[in-house]
Amino acid sequence: MAKPRQTCKRLWYCVLEARNEEQPFMKAYVITTGVIFVLMTLVHLWRIALEGFQLAKDPHFILFTILSVGLSIWSWRVLRQNPRS
After folding, report:
1. Of 1, 5, 15, 67, which sits 20 to 30 A from 43 (CA to CA)?
2. How many domains does the chain have?
């Protein structure tokens, strides 16, 4: 099995480019994780709607909400970079 080649456009934005046989699996992985983080963000917003804005005082809740939004955006950007496959 050939080792994937690594390309970096930005320091934190490294993406492994695999061979054509492995790209559908990577794309499925990115789609799956993106959907999970979008759902996590929606659940956090739903919880804010149910419990009120006192959750804004909880730093862990804010951190995980921002993290899930960031990872959702990251997965969308990765999918847009490699539209083929």
Report:
1. 15
2. 1
